[in-house]
Structure formats: C-alpha cells, structure tokens
Amino acid sequence: MKLKLLLRFVASLLCMSQLVFSQTKLPAKKIDALKKELVGEIEKEKVFTQQMVDMVFSFGELGFQEVETSKYLTDILKKNGFAVQEGIAGIPTSWMATWGSGKPVIAIGSDIDCIPKASQKPGVAWHDPIVEGAPGHGEGHNSGQPLNVTAVLALKKIMEREHIPGTIVMWPGVAEEQLGSKAYYVRDGFFKDIDACIFTHVASNLSVSYGDGGGNGMISVKFNFTGESAHSAGAPWRGRSALDAVELMDIAWNYHREHMEPTQRSHYVVVDGGDQPNVVPSQASVWYYFRERTYPKIKQMYDDAIKMAHGAELMTGTKMSYTVLGSAWPGHFNKPMAEAMYQNIKMVGMPEWSADDQLLARAVQKEINSPKTDQRNRPIDGLDTKLDSLREPEKVSMGGGSDDIADISWNVPTIVLRFPANIPGLPGHNWANAISMATPIAHKGVTAGAKAEALTLLDMFVKPQIIDSAWAYFKNVQTKDTKYIALISPTDKPAIDLNKKIMAEFRPEMKKYYYNPGQYKTYLEQLGIKYPTLKPAGVTKTATAASTEN
Length: 550
Ligand SMILES: [Zn+2]
Hints:
Blueprint: H1 2-22, H2 28-44, H3 46-59, H4 67-79, E1 83-86, E2 95-101, E3 105-111, H5 144-162, E4 166-173, H6 182-187, E5 196-203, E6 211-212, E7 217-226, H7 242-256, E8 265-272, E9 283-292, H8 295-316, E10 319-328, E11 332-333, H9 335-348, H10 355-367, H11 405-409, E12 414-420, H12 440-462, H13 464-478, H14 500-511, H15 523-527
Parallel strand pairs: 3-4, 3-5, 5-12
Antiparallel strand pairs: 1-2, 2-4, 6-11, 7-9, 7-10, 8-9
Helix pairs in contact: 2-5, 2-12, 3-4, 3-5, 3-12, 5-12, 7-8, 9-12, 9-13, 12-13
Bound molecules: zinc ion.
C-alpha cells in the first residue's frame, strides 16, 4: 500500500514537470523571426544543396552497397560536428550521426539506394542511359539526405546561437527497395530513445499526411531448394530438380491467388533456375514479396507460402530452406506532427518552376505515355504548381506499395515529408523517374523541402507540446488496438550481400561519371547536357518508352 502511494506521488510529480516542460520555450515573435532567418539561410545554401543532390545521383548505388553515398554524407556530417556511429545493426553502409544534447531527441532519415537498370542522363526527355544497363536513381533517393543535411545544418547554427536544447539524430534508409534495414534498426534498439522521427521522400508535391497511409506491409522471402544433379539426357532418373520445386511452388501460389483478398500483392522472381539444360539443376531459388494491409494477413501469406514450399519439397524429393530478405509494416503516421508540418508547408509553398522545367516535365510525360489524371483524379500536366492538401487517412484502400519507414512509425511518432523533386505521372522504379533528379527541378524541390523540414524541427524543439500531443496520438489512437510485432525474427540478419555482384559489374564504368563539383558547377554541365534536351518536333517516340518498367 505504501509503495502504491509513493508511486502515485512520483507520478504526480512527473505530471507537473511535464506541464512545465510542455510550455513553449520561446515567444511567438521570436520563433517567427527565427523561421524567417532559417528560410533565408537555406536559400543561401542552394549551391551546396545542388552539389549534394548531384553527387549522390552520380553514385547510383543499389541497396546494401551504398558505400560512396554513405562515406560522402557522413564526411559532411563529421565536418559539421556530428558524432557518427558507422555500420549500425550489422549493415556496413548504415550509420547514425548525432549532434546536440538533451531532450527532445529527433531522428531525421531518408533512403539512399537506387534502382537496377535505371541509369539515365538527367535533363534528357527520353531513355538515354549514362551507363547502359547500370543502376540509377530511378526512384529519386538521391535527394532526401541532401534535403535533411541542408535543413539540419541551417537549424544547428540557430540552435547553437540561441542555446536551444535538443538532439538531432540523422540516419539513412539503406536498401529501401529491398525493405531491408529499418525493421533491423528498430529490433536492435536504435530508435528506443528517440522522441519523434521525420522522414523525407521524393514526390511531385510538397506534402505530408497522417493516419493509415493506405499502403501494404510486406515480407520478402527467398526459398532455396537443393536437389541432385545428373545428366539430363543420360541419367535424368538419377536427378532431383530444384527448379521443378521452384516451378511447383509458383504454380501452387498462383492457384492460391484466386482465393486471396484483392488487397494482397504478391510477386516473385526466379533468382536461380539452374545453369544449363543438360544438367539437372541441383540448386534453384525463388524470391517472393508478400504484401497485405495488416500484420495478421501478411503473416498468413508468409505461413501459406512456407507450406507450399514444403509441398514442393515433398513432391520433388528436394530439400528446402528459406531466408527473410526484408520486411515492412503497413504505414501509420502521426497527426499532430503532420498538422505542425503542414502549417510550415503552407508558409514555404511550391517552388517556382521555370518554362524549361515545365517543358522537360511535359516532354517526359508525353514520352512515357503518362495518364491524364492521377489516382486521386487530379490532372497530370507538367509540374504541380498548387500545394496538395493535408492528406487524411485512406478510408478504403485496395493496397499498394510498402516502405519500411512504417516499422519506425509503429515505434516512434513519425511523419513523412514529401517534396517536389520529380515529375508527376511517371511509372516509378523506372529510368524516367531519374530524369529530373539532377536538374533544377530536383534542386528547387529539395530546397523547398529543406525549408519545410527545418521550420518544423524548430517548432518541435521549442514547442514541447507538439511532441506531447504526438505521443498522446501514438498511444491513444494509433497503437490503441494495434500492437507492433516485428515481421523479422530475433535471428534474421540483414541481407547485406544483395546487389554485390551487380555493383561489382557496373561500378568501374560508373566511377568515370562521378560528379566533380571542383570542376563543374552542375552535373548537367559535367555531362555536357543542354537543359532541357527535348526531341526535335516530328521525331516519334523511342521504341523503349514504357517498356522497361521494372
Ligand atoms: Zn522510395
């Protein structure tokens, strides 16, 4: 009984200190003045921002192989007083960079990996790779970290001068295209002391949303079969084909599809189907993504697939094992933080696009056969000029893509700032999505995003009530009935060998095109590209348009 009373007393003391802590630390007028200064500072850093965007674009590194990108970014952060811990969660290209002291601790992240076969000359309105067949930033992940670095360095100056307490933690989304890192960061405790997280992702508008994002969560699993090789003509009866097992598993899954809910997405590639026809394949593997709207449904797909893989193993007399290569929860984002961010988005507004920016955008949309309207029925015609509204949760969703930022969003109040560095109406995961990413479109979009982020961070550091309400929403709304259960097990390991071979093949040639800001003002200048480069009137579309979607 005494203990209970004591606990209650301590709890009430904590409540009181929370109230004191919750008051805004600076007068409104002062905050406004600091915000104006921040916008001005970020505007002054435009060249530095452009150089970072162009540099990361030129590295074009696939998931888990972001060696140059991580080195370049952490060097900048180290030079600016950040303490950098490298190789976190057993991922060599990962890191956490920390600056400041005390509460709140705000984590700021963005992805850094690129897309296979998406090499593309920036500013050229048709498929024209820098290095044929090489990876490239066909998702625009070269822009988010430059945005974060710009925002944070401008804010850091002000925090130092004004003695604003708080800690900034910067981190990269490694191998986002494989949903490969963020669940591991969470599992290994890297987000346990974080008070809030802002994530940035390229888009074609400056926007933020909250609640259920409408996307799917997923688990990525590779099924490996081992059989027995034999001469396919001389003694096929002595062989046990691992490829047969892969094919039977795929057939089973494709029959199963008919009886699944329409929100599911599942897709696979055969990563090893044997070596040559006259050798019965002793090794074969198939790599699946299983996506659904909720954890139990994703888990059900995963369990069903394991059963089918065992069935295929039985039917073929082979041995099966499986490896998890990545995972993501369905996203849910924080309302109070999104509302705070949206006020700043309105203050910043959309960038001013030049006639050349619009010419490029329309030419690319024409080249790629963009639809006339987007999924929300808004017209697609050049670059967006009007700000999007604050997006509310999707009421009905038919499912869609995934992002492992969701795993962080179920552990720490999180929002995703989307910024206008790309052209609307493109297919995604495609060379076309790389065209704008080292041009004035991306440069201006990143500067606008950096302003919105820096202003919101300032709000969060000087108005503790934002973080208090963020946690109230997180506890009382978001996680009231849904509890996070990791899709990865305690023993699953990040798939850090993915993409090693592809990068080894292409890196020597790609190196010749790394951006050299000492010699060239922009990457466009280095590549000798006139901005924008459009097809002369009368030239028909290239045969490759819209046919290389991944
Ligand atoms: Zn992405």
